[in-house]
Automatic annotation (TrEMBL):
This is Putative tata-binding protein-interacting protein. GO terms for biological process: SCF complex assembly. Residues 1037-1197 form the TATA-binding protein interacting (TIP20) domain. Residues 152-290 form the Stalled ribosome sensor GCN1-like HEAT repeats region domain. Keywords: Repeat, Ubl conjugation pathway. Residues 311-335 are annotated as: Disordered. Pfam families: HEAT_GCN1, TIP120, TPR_CAND1. Signal peptide: none annotated. Belongs to the CAND family.
Length: 1231
């Protein structure tokens, strides 16, 4: 903006007309907010002078605008002008004119909020100028000046606390006396300012304030001072609780004493302080939890002015007696009764205890649960809500974690609370039943919230209580005064209840539920209609369940449900979400009741077709049609099939992934259930769109495409466009990513092709097709990945399974090719294919087979050796009696080939132990295998020992009762190699799935893990690996052993000088640390404990060892940086207490310079180390209040001032923010 325009505006600002002044100030404000504005020094001075003058304008509106101008102005002008603004505002703050004081304090707050935190000298200078003046203002006698000064100081300390460190003593001298002020408002604002100050002050200043408060509480004081001091302690704890931990014991003694005084307000503050301590000092408060819980239980029932017993007799009708209440209200007023605040604080404190101390869950169900249920009758609505929320916290803590639903063995899961909750359900329902019909909407909402959480924690819990709950549900859904949220909560609970119980439970209540839900479907508010349609869909499943036989007559309700949904489906103006729900609901109605609605199908199926053609509703329609097509009622879809299949084919070309996936599922379902209703030509229109989907870039889509093609080949083989499909499938087979389910789908597809017996797709043609990639490898770009040989071999075996007569001839031909010794790659393919065929067929008739495979053990190529080993094991699976003795004999006879033969044996054990039939074959041979394996436990070669250990572990799973004791016995061996093999083998008995061996392992795993005390380092290392495996896969095995195992684990994290030796390499001496592998295993185990069982670990002790690892070897540092980042997320409060000890080693790493003559790898290593360290720093910096730590803020300043570190830090922060969205930011491979 040109200077003459500014001059023009400034001129208008001096006008006598207030409108001119207002408009000119407004224009200036607009200009200042533009990035393009540049002011020269003279203009700056004039603008600043004018804005400050306008702050004293007679017109209030002009004053307000002038204050708003200060924000953008501070950023635009130079530092000396900002200082002028601040000085002027500070001077006006102590002015005699009240209006000027007010406007100046608002101005100062605006300036503070706009000051850039990144500037080098501006913020410190401004803070310096303001602080002294504010400290003086606080000591003034004028209360309004004091209040404003305290407010501004709080803002200043919360934003720039670390910049004010030099002035902390001055500020403290001004603040502390104000805690004794006569005015409550002054005391409150002093508390806020003090708590902000103590987050960033030095330890000595912090302790001085705390000592002042504690000494003050010990001396007899007036009540208001005691209240203030307790409030101050609570506020300090909320802001900087991690530093209060050392004083908690002394504080709690005083709180227990003061909470017994006859002063409701004091009791409230004591309970609020306890709540703050529980949340901010979780470790230090542990010894005081029982006394806090006792205190809360005492005060949650504290209601001296009300007799609940008089209410108990007629709780059900008490809400209808408003007239009587009016009469009583004249005699007694609640206005003087403060006891509700005490009860509310007690309930909130209990909620904090429950939320943070999950390990006391059983104790809570014994003591807290009955007490809270008894208090559901609380008369004060807000207190009642807090009591409900405390109970909801208890239910949330009981809810099995997501992992526990898959793994009944997670570390945290305790079955006790579940059974105790089960016993208390009748009491909960009895207490809630009358409350569900109260007039208070908030109470009813809390009831539904609690009941939903109860169902989450204990599915099916309300089966016997539906009769008691129905009146309450009816009341909330039919009451005209119910709010929208009330209805949505009620419907949401009904939906949850319908999903989690047996359908028969609701059949007596269908008569009542259907009209209620139908009314809600037609509610004008779309959110209620959406929720109601969801309930209606569940109701359809309950009224006519397809998976359970019931005698309930559902037919009277069908027209009502159908017409209600049809109306919504047809309605053109409804909300998008309602449309989608209506489509899903109609899909469910047709799927579950289509046999009764035959006459209506001609009406509603074309509607689906319409919705299918609409881009907005097509995905929902595909899902609904899938439901109908999969229904056992086999609803007649012939009216729309001719249109649906080509439409679905066109969807396969769309970019929308979810649409592709669902369209493929629907096509597959239609082919399986309705192929007799359409001709192959129609299906071909969809199949010809499939080839582009058969790509490794999206294996899930490829997998579903293969499932669809397999069904098509089985039901309508003539519809296949195989000349387009097979090249794509072969490209997929060559992909290294094709494994697991996708590979199995490919095998089934090839088998379906052979079964279809199509003229141009014979067994021989497919065999040639599958062998071609191996034979044609010489062509450029045709080199196969190692995984592709396995895939091709499995495909050949899969098609051979369909033509058993070809098994032996093919195997014989491949064996002949092996003997001809073509290329190594072809050899690998032949061996793997013989193995896969031999897995399913007995090849013992080919006499030279075992010897021929054995000869391949002598090949030069490691790949050929591995393939031969795999093949021998796989062939033995097909005929155990013939080949197993051969393998065992050769292990004994050929020491040089032992490693490969042991791998063959491992293949036999692994394959046969997967199925029941395989186990029956394997069990008779177990003694001979076991004996042979035990002979090689002390083998000199480590690789062979590891395979022996794996085989032993897998055999123990086959016969645990018999073999586990033998392993225990072998643990007493004098040979370190034997002990190493035995402890290693235990790792292979632990799986993340439930196993028959688990109860036995639980009893004896301690004996194996106590090998952590073994004098031999190698044994200790494998014991750590086994411990890690147990914690990762089945934490319950070691949960109770942690107190004994953790000290041994921690001792292995220390550097042991006796394991460090010097090796001379020519003229140089090189240090070798034999303990490094053990330390790595120990830290990996600690990392796993982080993820699985931190609640059983003393976190402070744990942090000590992590911090020691930050100064260890490169590999250990990398691990502990990961752990630091994870700990910052999992237990920020504890990390905050030890922040200095984390920052120093991280700083040392980041500032370390690599020697000038170092090799390139050394630079790369150091860079990676810095990057990892900075990730840990970013995680530490993200902890709330961490930025107030002096060590960390200095380190961050150093990072920002070092260009190399700054660039690295920014990229790390960017990565972290991206990863936090995908929730995979800080994870470690646990395989």
């Amino acid at each position: 903006m040109a200077s003459y325009q500014i001059a023009n505006l400034l001129d208008k600002m001096t006008s006598n007309d207030k409108d001119f002044r207002f408009m000119a100030t407004n224009d200036l404000m607009t200009e200042l907010q533009k990035d393009s504005i540049k002011l020269d020094d003279e203009s700056e001075k004039k603008v600043v002078r004018m804005v400050l003058r306008l702050l004293e304008d007679k017109n209030g509106e002009v004053q307000n605008l002038a204050v708003k101008c200060l924000g953008p102005l501070v950023i635009k002008v130079k530092e000396n002008q900002v200082e002028t603004i601040v000085d002027s505002l500070c001077a006006n703050m102590v002015s005699n004119k009240e209006q000027l004081r007010d406007i100046s304090s608002i101005g100062l707050k605006t300036v503070i909020s706009e000051l850039p935190q990144t500037s080098n000298s501006l913020a410190p200078n401004v803070c310096q100028r303001i602080t002294g003046k504010l400290s003086n203002a606080i000591e003034k006698e004028d209360v309004s000046v004091q209040l404003e000064a305290l407010d501004i100081l709080s803002d200043l300390l919360s934003r720039f606390g670390d910049l004010l460190v030099p002035f902390h003593d001055t500020i403290l001298k001004a603040l502390v006396p104000q805690l004794g002020s006569q005015r409550q408002a002054v005391r409150k604002r002093t508390i806020v300012a003090l708590s902000h100050l103590l987050t960033s002050c030095s330890n000595s200043a912090y302790n001085k304030v705390i000592e002042h408060l504690l000494e003050g509480l010990k001396k007899p004081q007036n009540t208001s001072t005691i209240r203030t001091y307790i409030q101050c302690l609570a506020s300090i704890c909320r802001q900087a609780g991690h530093r209060l931990c050392n004083h908690i014991d002394r504080v709690m003694v005083l709180l227990n004493e003061y909470s017994q005084r006859e002063d409701d307000e004091l009791r409230e503050f004591c309970l609020q302080a306890c709540e703050a301590f529980i949340q901010r000092c979780p470790e230090a408060i542990v010894p005081h939890i029982p006394s806090i819980v006792a205190l809360c239980l005492d005060y949650v029932t504290y209601d001296p002015n009300y007799n609940y017993e008089a209410d108990d007799g007629d709780a059900g009708v008490s809400m209808d007696t408003e007239e009587e209440e009016d009469v009583d209200s004249e005699e007694y007023s609640d206005d003087d009764d403060m006891s509700w605040k005490v009860r509310r604080s007690a309930a909130k404190c209990l909620e904090s205890v429950i939320s943070t101390r999950h390990e006391l869950l059983e104790e809570f169900y014994r003591t807290l649960s009955p007490a809270l249920i008894a208090r559901f009758k609380e008369r004060e609505e807000n207190v009642k809500s807090d009591i409900f929320h405390a109970y909801i916290a208890l239910l949330k803590a009981t809810r099995p974690s997501e992992d526990a639903t898959h793994d009944p063995d997670s570390m945290e899961q305790v079955p006790g609370p579940i059974s105790m909750l089960q016993d208390q359900v009748p009491e909960i329902v009895r207490a809630i039943q009358p409350l569900m019909r109260e007039k208070s909407v908030k109470t009813r909402q809390d009831c539904f919230l609690l009941l939903r959480e109860l169902l989450n924690a204990l599915p099916g819990a309300l089966a016997k209580h539906v009769d008691q709950l129905m009146p309450g549900i009816n009341y909330s859904l039919s009451d005209k005064n119910s709010t929208s949220n009330m209805k949505i909560d009620a419907l949401s609970f009904v939906c949850c209840m319908l999903q989690g119980h047996n359908p028969q439970v609701f059949h007596p209540h269908i008569q009542l539920l259907v009209p209620l839900v139908e009314n809600a479907v037609f509610d004008p508010f779309y959110k209620i209609a959406t929720e109601a349609l969801l309930v209606l869909q569940q109701l359809v499943k309950v009224i006519r369940p397809l998976n359970v036989e019931t005698s309930f007559d559902f037919t009277p309700f069908v027209p009502q449900l159908y017409n209600c949904t049809l109306q919504k489906l047809r309605s053109p103006e409804v909300d998008q979400e309602v449309k989608e729900r209506a489509i899903a609901c109609m899909g469910q109605i047709i799927a579950n009741m289509g046999d009764v609605l035959r006459t209506e199908l001609t009406t509603c199926l074309p509607l689906f077709m319409e919705r299918l053609r609409n881009e907005v509703t097509r995905l929902s329609s595909v899902k609904a049609l899938t439901m109908i097509a999969a229904s056992p009622l086999r609803v007649n879809l012939s009216p729309i099939l001719a249109d649906v299949i080509p439409t679905l084919g066109s969807f396969l070309r769309k970019n929308q992934r979810a649409l592709k996936l669902n369209s493929l599922t629907l096509l597959d379902t239609l082919v399986i259930n309705y192929s007799q209703f359409f001709n192959p030509e129609l299906l071909k229109t969809a199949i010809q769109e499939v080839p582009p989907l058969l790509s490794e870039s999206d294996l899930h889509v490829a997998q579903l495409s293969l499932v669809f093609l397999t069904s098509a080949a089985q039901q309508q083989p003539q519809a296949g466009v195989y000349e387009a499909i097979l090249p794509e499938v072969m490209t997929l087979v060559r992909s290294p990513l094709l494994q697991g389910t996708a590979l199995n789908c490919t095998l089934r597809f090839f088998q379906a092709l052979v079964q279809a017996n199509l003229p141009r797709l014979s067994y021989n043609y497919l065999l040639e097709l599958l062998m071609a990639p191996v034979i044609n490898q010489q062509a450029p770009g045709q080199v196969l990945h190692k995984q592709a040989y396995h895939s091709l071999a499995k495909c050949v075996a899969a098609i051979t399974l369909q033509v058993p007569a070809q098994a032996e001839p093919v195997a014989a031909q491949l064996l002949h090719d092996i003997q001809e010794r073509k290329s190594d790659t072809y050899l690998v393919f032949c061996l793997l294919t013989i193995g896969e065929i031999g897995r399913h067929f007995n090849l013992s008739s080919i006499e030279m087979l075992p010897q021929c495979i054995l000869n391949c053990f002598a090949a030069q190529s490691e790949d050929v050796k591995a393939a031969a080993s795999h093949a021998l094991g796989a062939v033995a699976v097909g005929n155990l009696n013939c080949y197993l003795p051969f393998i065992l004999t050769e292990i004994e006879a050929q020491p040089k080939r032992q490693y490969l033969l042991l791998h063959s044996l491992k293949e036999v054990i692994s394959s046969l132990s997967l199925t029941k039939g395989g186990l029956e074959q394997l069990i008779p041979s177990v003694p001979s295998i076991w004996t042979q394996l035990f002979k090689h436990c002390e083998c000199s070669e480590e690789g062979s020992r590891n395979v022996v250990a794996e085989c032993l572990g897998k055999l123990v799973l086959v016969l645990p009762d018999e073999l586990l004791p033998r392993l225990q016995q072998a643990l007493k061996s004098d040979s370190p190699l034997m002990r190493t093999a035995v402890v290693s083998s235990i790792k292979f008995t632990i799986s993340d799935q439930p196993q028959p061996i688990d109860p036995l392992l639980r009893q004896c795993i301690g004996q194996f893990l106590y090998a952590l005390q073994d004098p031999e380092p190698a044994v200790r290392r494998v014991a750590l690996v086994a411990f890690n495996s147990a914690v990762h896969n089945k934490p319950s095995l070691v949960r109770d052993l942690l107190p004994e195992l953790l000290p041994q684990l921690y001792s292995e994290t220390k550097i042991k000088k006796e394991l460090i030796r010097e090796v001379e390499m020519g003229p140089f001496k090189h240090t070798v640390d034999d303990g490094l592998d053990i330390r790595k295993a120990a830290f990996e185990c600690m990392y796993t404990l982080l993820e699985q069982g931190l609640d059983r670990v003393d976190i402070m002790q744990f942090l000590e060892h992590v911090q020691a690892g930050l100064k260890d070897h490169y590999d250990i540092k990398m691990l502990t940086y990961l752990m630091t980042a994870r700990l910052a997320q999992l237990c920020p409060t504890a990390v905050l207490q030890r922040l200095d000890q984390f920052v120093d080693p991280l700083r040392a790493t980041c500032t370390l310079k690599v020697k000038a003559n170092s090799v390139k790898q050394e630079y790369e290593k150091q860079d990676e180390l810095k990057r990892s360290a900075l990730r840990a720093v970013a995680a530490l910096a993200s902890i709330p209040k961490a930025d107030k730590n002096q060590h960390l803020s200095e380190f961050l300043t150093l990072i920002r001032g070092t260009p190399d570190l700054q660039t690295l830090f920014e990229s790390v922060q960017k990565d972290t923010s991206v990863n936090s969205n995908t929730d995979s930011g800080i994870s470690m491979d646990q395989s």
